[in-house]
Request: fold
Amino acid sequence: MTRTRCDRTPAWAQLQAAYQASGKDFDLRDAFAADPQRFAQFSQAAPLVFADLSKNRIDTATQELLFQLARETGLLAHRDAMFAGEVINTTEQREVWHTLLRAPADATTASAHEAQALAQVHGTLDAMLAFAESVRADGAITDIVNIGIGGSDLGPQMAVLALDAFAGTGKRLHFVSNVDGHELASTLAHLKASSTLFLVASKTFTTIETMTNAQSAKRWFATQGGSDIARHFAALTTNVAAANDFGITTTFGFWDWVGGRYSLWSAIGLPLAIAIGADGFREFLAGAHAMDQHFRSAPLEENLPVRLGLLDVWYRNFHGFTSRSIAPYHSALRRLPAYLQQLEMESNGKRVDASGAALPFGTSPVLWGESGTNGQHAYFQMLHQGTDVVPVEFVAVKKARHTLGAHHPLLLANVLAQAQALMVGKADAGGHKHFPGNRPSTFLLLDDLTPASLGALIALQEHRVFVSGALWGINSFDQWGVELGKVLAKDIAPRLDSGDTTGLDGSTAGLLGMLRD
Ligand code: F6P
Reply:
């Protein structure tokens, strides 16, 4: 498989020239005035998600060059390698096969290895969903506590909140991730051992935060008179042996080819399956699969993840924009920004390419955001009038699932107004009331927020991250950058007891002393 890093292609130099010639002075208002078809031309329908890209600083010539860039880097071959289960996570020698988790049981497979993996996926999925249904039907269990962090927390938490309208069991779901004992203690304070189910979610079953919380939960369970661990604890992990050693016998496994931040579709999705039921979870997988098929087969020019990923590269490497703000105009999507932070920044926050060579250009932008309209009353001031240009990604949902008449039209009016205001601006000679405008945004629109449309939206985001990572020539599927802090914390923890500061830098030693006083 040949990959060519984006900056080593002929298209890269052409894009640099295009940026100098017209890109840097591109004005969205002029572009709309010159082209009445701009909305249609820069819109893209994909399964369950519609995207308006027209308020972005891009013209057809640049877009064509970006498609050429994609071809010259070998994006399509890299994409196909992922779907085929090739070892594209080269620093960990692993396949990257989360797409297989949402493939139907009768999907056509290209190899015996894939057929075997797909059969295992569906065996585990069936068992996991049967368990979810049994928990839903179990009147004695009122509270489910997911103990996990990173990908073993952010995905299920975001999705459970997002699909709250589909949760009909009355069960309360709690998420404990932080090693900060305040989080677990305040959760346990409201629970009874006899009515609580703990899900210990950890791909590796070694993560210190999760293991510490799980140990404390187990101790609490015993002190509360609980004894039936098999009924009150389940583990979601690739490391079933470690879960057994911990004393948990109810386990749902997955595979090392599922990255933590891509694991919501595996047994890690059990909290969501309990919340929305087996049928709902299957719809969630089907929505993601529809987006997989789109990414896999739509021509570049009509391929939404490709168009988004190329725009990300154009903004990061040519316009020099260093961040992107996520603005979901639906309160149920309020954890989406946190979820996307891990997805994109852990995947593409890399400074070397797949061969280990330092990159001469920027990679992952900073992702941040809040649900609308809350963000409008906090940081949108900076988006409209600050010195930096921050592309905004709005997410709106046409249909409301409440019956409070006036709210939804007002919410939709606000999201349209913000996107419009960023672009059109407002001239005012006085300065303070001047809005420069020409500030770009993308508008993602769902008809309805359902298990299927959420699945499609998340898969879309996974694939757009794949596209920019592929062009940058990096390995988007490892996360070595989180290791150093873990090692140092292990070294520091006993020093908080002993007071030993040997070998520490002056600041760490000083702070350690203060924390021991
Ligand atoms: O933060 C690093 C990381 O490895 C993430 O990639 C992962 O989602 C998280 O830790 C949790 O890991 P685990 O599921 O193995 O406990």
Q: What stands out?
A: The CA atoms of residues 51 and 300 lie 15 Å apart. The chain has three domains: 6-95+286-480, 112-274, 481-516. The chain has a mean pLDDT of 97. Residues 149-152, 202-204, 207, 210, 260-261, 346, 479, 482 surround 6-O-phosphono-beta-D-fructofuranose (CB under 6 Å).
